[in-house]
Structures
1.
Amino acid sequence: MKISIIGAGNMGGAIAKGLAQSTLINTTDITVTAATQKTLDAIKSFNRDINTSKNNSEAVKNANIIIIAVKPWLIDKIAKEIAPYINNNQIIISIVAGVPFEYLDKLFRCAQDAPAIFRAIPNTAISIKESMTAIASYNASTEQEKLILSIFNELGKSILIEERLMVAATALGSCGTAFALRYIRAAIEGGIEMGLYAHQAKEIVSQTVKGAAELLMHNQSHPEEEIDKVTTPGGITIKGLNEMEHAGFTSAIIRGLKASR
Ligand SMILES: NC(=O)C1=CN([C@@H]2O[C@H](COP(=O)(O)OP(=O)(O)OC[C@H]3O[C@@H](n4cnc5c(N)ncnc54)[C@H](OP(=O)(O)O)[C@@H]3O)[C@@H](O)[C@H]2O)C=CC1
Ligand SMILES: O=C(O)[C@@H]1CCC=N1
């Protein structure tokens, strides 16, 4: 199975790196393209078996799966370039945030029919096979859906959802990486103010956040259930939590997520 990624930047490059570590795809069957040689060299230095090219139309010709990973304002230009070389046996995956199937159909329709198109929104942890990827499908068979889910499951976890939910899933799962990291940064800064060295604070906060997330997944529990186990009545955790809430913690997160939408 050959996969071509058009646009090997933060996300396209991360997907290529993740795929190169997966068992489903041979690294020599991965091709990435970019506008500049510098980006392609960076991919080669990660794994020299990944094919690199600046020729998008050549890259898509023999691919079974084509992943479009350019900035949203470049999708029209890229589609114009590659659409003549795409056929209905190929699968297109657009990771371009905010571009609906209705629009992708117009861009990639071959003759009377559109190929199978997926929208996938991973996050940057895909480079280390720890992504959460939301996927919506259009014109695809159940077999094709299974195939695409199996690829992204190898690169973390994936979920098939209706297209109308992609916006919310993007805010939570993709922008969410930045939101979680901003909490981590804030906690590190607090730790330093209380006397810890930066590297010590980072280690403590990173493992604590990872452990908190693992608790939810391992115990299949609700966050408040786990919080109850930490908050000693009259103790220090509830004092900290309430102070954060007075400053608008929950509200700030909900407002931020809705603004991302
Ligand atoms: N970053 C993220 O966390 C996420 C991003 N997305 C979506 O992914 C898409 C890409 O975002 P991101 O990776 O952050 O952006 P980047 O700018 O990092 O990557 C875009 C890539 O496209 C390449 N490119 C530009 N023009 C061409 C061209 N004509 N032919 C081939 N490649 C080209 C660039 O090449 P060069 O490097 O040489 O300039 C660059 O490598 C966006 O649409 C975004 O909505 C979706 C989910 C998460
Ligand atoms: O910020 C953005 O627009 C992209 C889409 C999701 C994550 N990054």
2.
Amino acid sequence: MEAFITRKKRKLDADPGHHLLLNDNQLAPGSNEIASEADDEPTEVKLAILSSLHPSVDQETLLDILLAHDGSVLEASAAFKDGKPRKKGSGVVGSQSSLRFFPRSGLANPELSPKKPKLLSKKGKTLFLFDPIDISEHTPCTVLHNFLPAEEADSLLKELLEESKSFEKITFKLFDNVVESPHTSSFYVGSLDEVNRQKMEYLYSGARLTDVRELTPELSRVKPRVEQAVNREIQERIRTRYPGGKKLKYQPPGPWRPNAAFVNCYNGPQESVGWHSDRLTYLGPRAVIGSLSLGVAREFRVRRVLPRDGDDDPDAQGQISIHLPHNSLLVMHAEMQEEWKHSIAPAQAIDPHPIAGNKRINITYRDYRDELSPSRTPHCRCDLPAILRVVQRKKENFGRYFWMCCGGDSPGEAGCSFFQWAEFDDDGNPMWDGAKGKGT
Ligand SMILES: O=C(O)CCC(=O)C(=O)O
Ligand SMILES: [Fe+2]
């Protein structure tokens, strides 16, 4: 338990789905360890770190060099020291023929285990996947192309392009600077009551959301289609890929019911979202997310989280890029948030979309669980609702869930040292222990 308290990280944004985590000691300049730890961080944090190490180099060059070294701060920084930073060439979108004829890799093995999985791609290499069969074989995702009837996809896109005119970038404090999230977003829920509850009760990275809206007519119209497809894909995944054809431990057995949607807008090739897993606090363990992409095609990257200690080699990680064209539905399955990280990589070039121009709209439909609403979950000593996390890096207690204070998430706040193991039954229902949880 102590390990988590002393390794507590400072979170830097108020972006609901995302983690911008930085160790408190991360900016001591000149240390390779700092740079290599930073390889887990979102692009904007990596840039801030590189910038602090190489203050005379402009941001655009830093980004270019970072991309050329596949996001490794350590390698990018070392290249500066060597005086040979590699610039990325044109043609950032890779190509990959079908993997179907390659042997199975075991990448999508959903059993939560600290064992080092076999990976298809090595660090520094990205495997580009386009084929839905390859994607479900090698990642914890399923992709359905041409998901909606074409006119429905276009009307949803048009509606959300209009909405996105008033989306804002989330700002967060990075040391003494105010940094902006690298895309704009808004959050949609089912009713005005829900809007108010979200604004008053729910905390994201220790902060309240100010921009919460009611689901628009098109978002509501599409929701049952997404619900039906995601539930079908969950069952298919269980039947064909999970051990014994059974749902995972902690995965809820009932149907997935989306009741909220985050909408992101990426305006131009440089807008992105850094590596993160989505917070489980309100979704619970083994959460499934339905993610619909519209407009410009972009790369959705996934990377398995490997335990760090022991003799594991963190450099063994590879990343996989999933091509997400207009009107594709990506299902992030139950093994995704605990065991993998995902990002939207900045692109060097994009193909403009006839309706959206340079913009990509992404909607993540989510199932917010009543039993995990902030009035029912443990509160820390600061009297704030605690956040739910899972042990991802340590072999000891690997895969265990815990509640901790969100105070350290807010810039300038230290937070308290609250820590409590989170207990769930096999179906993912919280098991409150006496007064610790409020849902008994
Ligand atoms: O834009 C995407 O496809 C992913 C967005 C995402 O990861 C999030 O909102 O948490
Ligand atoms: Fe996400």
